Amino acid sequence: MNLEEAEEYGALLFTEKEVKLILTKEANTVENAILKGQLLTEATIRKVIIEQAKNGSSEAQKIVLKWQNAIKVSKIR
């Protein structure tokens, strides 16, 4: 696992489990392959939303806050 890539996906507010799946070289099941593809598409979308949030979009900022809260909750569990 490349730590720079892990950091990049962490900055996109993916959970540790999601980052590990994204960075696996080969998915071991069809379900994991599908989820990995979905997460990679979501990463592209998150990059845009985070950039919009940095540029002052209140709607984008609300979405980013939801992602941050979800990560906090996942760490508590």
User: Ranges with pLDDT <50 over ≥5 residues?
Assistant: none
Q: Please tally the β strands and state the result.
A: 0
**Kindly state the mean pLDDT as a whole number?**
92
The run of helices and strands is HHHH
What is the approximate shape? globular
Distance between the termini: 24 Å
Number of helices: 4
Oligomer: single chain
Largest sheet: none
Structural class: mainly alpha
Radius of gyration (Å): 13 Å
Q: How many domains would you count in the coordinates?
A: 1
Percent of residues in beta strands: under 5%
As a percent range, the share of helical residues equals over 70%
Descriptors:
77 residues, mainly alpha, 4 helices
What does this structure look like?
This protein is 79% helix and 0% strand. With 77 residues, the chain is an all-alpha fold. The chain has one domain. Helix 1 crosses helix 2 (16-23) and helix 3 packs across helix 4. The longest helix has 25 residues, at 30-54. The two termini are 24 Å apart.
Task: Show the helix and strand layout.
Layout: H1 3-11, H2 16-23, H3 30-54, H4 58-76
Helix pairs in contact: 1-2, 3-4
Summarize the structure.
With 77 residues, the protein is mainly alpha-helical. 79% of the residues lie in helices and 0% in strands. The chain has one domain.
